[in-house]
Design goal:
It is built from 18 helices and 23 strands. The protein is α+β, with helices and mostly antiparallel strands. Strands 3, 4, 5, 6, 7 and 8 form a six-stranded antiparallel beta sheet that branches. The chain has a six-stranded mixed beta sheet with strand order 10-11-12-15-16-23, sandwiched between helices. β13 and β14 form a beta hairpin. α13 runs antiparallel to α14. The chain is globular and about 65 Å long.
């Protein structure tokens, strides 16, 4: 492996940023490089043949330099600081809704239950025309999102189009809190379920409150904690959530960096909520960072059975550093280690191949550690589940239906013609209703590529290049006809998956995000597996005491 060093305008800009955090810095070298950079920047700004934008040039230099380190070390200019705070707190001032771009249009996709847009009567599918009297044509989702946000109590006027009607309303923005726990409930009479989507500063309080409510209202004998797709967040919240299930004073995570102040051991500080209840934690390839601390620590202490797919593999810790003029730097300062001693970081960003690309640590180089019960676990590539499940892959037609917003648009029409539906957990789309969806889609102009289609095109091209086409033409055309026949049947062949996605989207229109989650429970194979394990004490204990991974 070869370490890549970039001596460029971008890397020279970085000395200013790293000066305050360097370990045993070479002050002469830093001063030298900073002086060179200052002179280069001044000369370019003054004498370059075309007009330059100093701010843009500097931002590009810093971002280029930081990209050579890792994806998590980023420069945050003053205008993006507020968005960064939203990620860590889940709080902002605005109307309480998500939006999405469709062609040249901006569409409201999800009004949050009980917040300003919802209370003002706006619906998913409303096409935004103006914000405060200003047309949004040609604007990006970021531009429109900025216009919709503002201090709580300030007024905003929103003009939308719904089913050919123009609706204009003026209402007040509110303080919006996006919950880290959008749903919790019972999977059966005895097993509870909590979804955690992010590690904001209120995540542990929400998880604890959900667990207390489940225990208060039910004879709780098992719990599924769903961390699938959770990208992480605050390290302290990962410690606090782990603390719900393990004793006070137990080590959760170690962080190790260049500076002594960054070498810390984080232990549980509070009395646990429950030490006995069997727990299953669901993870997948989208579970990262704080999600991996929780699942990895509970696995190390044999406190939970981990189910799903290997997690993302982010074992790095970031800290936010204040810069001048309101800007900030989010910089990787340490690696973290679970109680067994493993660092689950999947990529060593300091080591790159000859082309400068990073590579994942191969399984053959992963080091074995052991849990409290002596079970083998490994570093260097995410958290391996105790029970591995095959991920569900989406077919090309489903990906296209989503990208073109055809699922969304059909559900919008469905919701406008149905005043109510069954409870979210019970709602199902009838075969006749699915047939109406198929008929509706057939009138729409959308296309999707498949690997089979690409292979046929490559075969035809190769046959022509190598002068075999005349002999193979009939066979190739026969394959194409059979493919097109099968391709035209994709809506029926993928009926179960498409129907399920439609049901979830419909449930969300009447019962918000919690309804979407509740509706998906009955068809979720990983939840079914978790239920099976938690309902069988012998199986549950067998996984936690096994000398080898299942």
């Amino acid at each position: 492996m070869k370490k890549i060093t970039k001596l460029s305008l971008a890397s020279l800009a970085g000395v200013l940023l790293i000066f305050s955090v360097a370990f045993k810095p070479d002050y002469f070298e830093i001063s030298k490089q900073l002086d060179i950079f200052t002179n280069v920047f001044k000369e370019v700004s003054l004498y370059y043949v075309d007009e330059t934008q100093p701010g843009e040039l500097m931002t590009e230099a810093m971002e280029s330099m930081l990209e050579s380190l890792d994806p998590y070390t980023t420069y945050i200019p003053e205008e993006r600081v507020e968005d960064f705070k939203i990620q860590t707190t889940g709080n902002y001032g605005g109307i309480g809704a998500s939006i999405r771009k469709r062609g040249d249009e901006i569409v409201l996709t999800t009004p949050y239950e009980g917040f300003a847009a919802d209370k003002a009567g706006f619906k998913a599918g409303d096409r935004i025309l103006e914000v405060d009297g200003k047309p949004i044509t040609g604007k990006s989702t970021s531009d429109v999102s900025t216009a919709l946000k503002g201090a709580a109590g300030t007024e905003v006027t929103l003009k939308v189009e719904r089913a050919g009607k123009i609706i204009t309303k003026t209402f007040e923005r509110e303080d919006v809190h996006v919950k880290s726990v959008p749903y919790y409930g019972m999977l059966d009479e005895n097993v509870g379920y909590i979804v955690l989507t992010s590690f904001t500063d209120k995540a542990s309080k929400e998880v604890k409150a959900a667990l207390k409510e489940l225990k208060k209202e039910n004879e709780l004998q098992g719990l599924v904690l769903d961390l699938r797709g959770n990208p992480g967040g605050l390290l302290n919240e990962a410690v606090n959530i782990t603390n719900i299930f393990i004793e006070k004073g137990k080590e959760v995570v170690d962080t190790k960096g260049k500076m002594e102040e960054w070498e810390k051991t984080y232990k549980t500080l509070n009395s646990p909520e429950d030490l006995e209840i069997p727990v299953a934690v669901l993870i997948n390839r989208g579970s990262a960072s704080a999600s991996e601390i929780v699942s990895g620590t509970l696995q190390d202490y044999d406190r939970a059975v981990i189910i799903g797919q290997r997690s993302y593999g982010k074992g790095l810790v970031q800290q936010t550093r204040q810069l001048s003029y309101g800007a900030q730097l989010k910089v990787t300062i340490a690696k973290y280690y679970t109680p067994s001693g493993r660092c689950i970081q999947a990529i060593n960003y300091a080591e790159r191949d000859e082309e400068g690309s990073v590579v994942k640590i191969p399984d053959s180089l992963r080091t074995q550690f052991t849990t409290a019960n002596g079970r083998p676990v490994f570093d260097g590539g995410g958290i391996d589940p105790d029970i591995e499940m095959e991920p569900e892959d989406l077919s090309p037609i489903i990906i296209s239906l989503y990208k073109e917003m055809l699922l969304f648009d059909w559900v919008t029409e469905y919701a406008r013609s149905h005043e109510s539906i069954a409870p979210a957990k019970e709602f199902e789309l009838s075969d006749a209703e699915y047939a109406s969806f198929v008929k509706w889609v057939e009138d729409k102009d959308f296309h999707y590529d498949t690997e089979t289609e690409k292979a046929l095109e490559e075969l035809e091209s190769a046959a022509k290049d190598e002068a075999y086409f005349a002999d193979l033409q009939s066979e190739i055309e026969g394959l194409r006809k059979r493919y097109e026949s099968r391709h035209n049947n994709d809506l029926e062949a993928n009926k179960a998956q498409i129907k399920r996605l439609l049901e979830e989207e419909i449930a969300s229109r009447y019962y918000y995000d919690s309804g979407r989650i509740a509706n998906a429970l009955h068809s979720d194979k990983e939840i079914a597996k978790a239920l099976e394990v938690l309902q069988d004490k012998q199986t549950y204990q067998g996984v936690l005491t096994a000398s080898a991974k299942q």
